[in-house]
Amino acid sequence: MRSGEVTSVELTDEAIARIERDDKAINAICVPDFDRARAAARGADQARARGEDRPLLGIPVTVKECYNIVGLPTTWGMPMYRDFVPTEDAIQVARLRAAGAVVLGKTNVPLRLQDLQSFNEIYGTTNNPWDHARTPGGSSGGSAAALAAGFGALSIGSDIGGSLRTPAHFCGVYAHKPTLGLVANRGMVPPTTPALPVDLDLAVVGPMARTARDLTLLLDVMAGPDPLTLGVAHDLTLPLARHQRLSDFRVLVLEEHPFIPTGSAVRAGVNRVADALVDGGAHVERHTPLLPDLAEAATLYTQLLFSGSVARLPVEAYEQFRTRAAGLSADDQSLDAVRLRGMAFSHRDWIEANDRRELHRHGWRQLFTEFDAVVCPITPTPAFPHDHNPDLLERRIDVDGVEYPYFDQLVWAGLATMPGLPATAVPAGLSPDGLPVGVQLIGPMFEDRTPLRLAELLEQRIGGFQAPKQGVLPDVLRG
Q1: What is the DSSP string of 268-308?
Q2: Both ends of the chain: CA-CA distance in Å?
Q3: Active-site residue (options: 8, 118, 143, 163)
Q4: Is 163 a catalytic residue?
């Protein structure tokens, strides 16, 4: 667009035409906003003609359904709120618009954002562009599917259980879970909930893209404190990446977890990245005594996640959790048992778990004096077939022919989430079945540019986004 080879109107019309042609099969865009998008594109072209330039001026983007956008419904997939329309844009939507982005519409999510898939009664099921019988992931699955299919260049999502990283891994695109607290979240709230500047525990909002550089571009638009709170007194200055050359990076590679095995396809992706690091001259290790205990990390994450997920349920439900948890054997340390005990947490229990989290955070600080990044899986498998069993605790995940509890696959996502570390999801090739496989690059707290820079360097060595057969990009959207 800067060189005049293409206009925002052309890009926007291409994206809309593609959505209208291909999204019947994928169902990524649940709330289109094409009239306003075309008007914004015309305005962007006029602004550029006047000599204006902004970071995203004229770029077509999508927004996860859970963000408030004036004039469009925000439902979180809950049927009782299908007609709720907010009167104020979420802060990140406002930042997209201020940067010049053209918002094409909203992308699909699971019910209450609480699944690794993306389906609900209002908008139906989103399919993976690589294999329509499989999920694109969740809860930012609609955004990842939209990117893979060429429905816009960028998207914004959210992450508490890998909701940015898992869809990126399943769909072969990029995503970045920022450091906890780095990106303001106001207006990414359940329907009818006041859009207040709340400090969330575990949860973040962040960027998704088809290239690593675009992740950095979008993070720069999104990052920064809420002007109603910390922004009153603080400005953001992210430190530069620790290194610019691959040969200067010190990287710890992990592929095994004590709670669940890593499937062969994902293991191959981790090792493909490890080999590229070694070939590029990076210092790579597989073990270190500085690594916080993975079993305790998964237990803490599970306790914090599930205690928060049920905190607003009726007191009768909480009492049922307490009764069931009291009936568990003290010897049962499975993640199923940890989940149930977490749902029965008292405030005293939460404070104790939070104190242990701070010890883990300190452990990560020590690790990052010796390493610059950690490479590890996002989930144990590539995208799995749709599973709409309404009881999520009854579902199972198949890892190379062996079944495990569905939520056990969250342990890798929780490795970065529990201490609040930044993590960048990058494509790492295809499985033998032709499905995308990704890995995550975990970095030091508030040094988000370090894993993002490593993602760029890996993209140069092993390649990045590949378009699925059902989602080959039109020429005007390439690059």
Answers
A1: HHHHHHHHHHHHTT-EEES--TTSPPHHHHHHHHHHHHHHH
A2: 13
A3: 163
A4: yes
Q: What is the pTM assigned to this prediction?
A: 0.97
**Please, are residues 390 and 372 in contact by the beta-carbon 8 Å criterion?**
no
Q: Which of 60, 64, 216, 63 lies closest to 152, judged by CA?
A: 60
Options 8, 118, 139, 140, the catalytic residue: 139
3-state helix, strand, coil in the chain (%, to 5): 40, 15, 45
Kindly report, residue by residue over 237-296, the tens digit of the pLDDT.
999 999 999 999 999 999 999 999 999 999 999 999 999 999 999 999 999 999 999 999
24 counts as catalytic: no
**The two three-digit tokens of residue 159, written as one number:** 């992450």
From CA 86, how far away is CA 71, in angstroms rounded? 7
Quote the Cα angle for 281-284-288, to 5°: 160
Report d(CA 31, CA 269) in Å as an integer. 34
In one-letter notation, the amino acid at residue 103 is: V
Given a cut of 50, the residues of the chain with pLDDT beneath it are 471-479
Alpha carbon distance 132, 129 (integer Å): 6
- Strand (E) or helix (H) holding 377: strand 373-377
- In the chain, list all ranges with CATH 3.90.1300.10: 8-288+371-477
The CATH topology of domain 8-288+371-477 is Amidase signature (AS) enzymes (3.90.1300)
Q: Please give the DSSP secondary-structure letter assigned to residue 261.
A: P
Report residue 164: phi and psi, to 5°. Answer: -90, -45
Which residue, among 104, 100, 103, 95, has the nearest Cα to 47 in the 3D structure?
Answer: 100
Contact 368, 239 (CB under 8 A): no
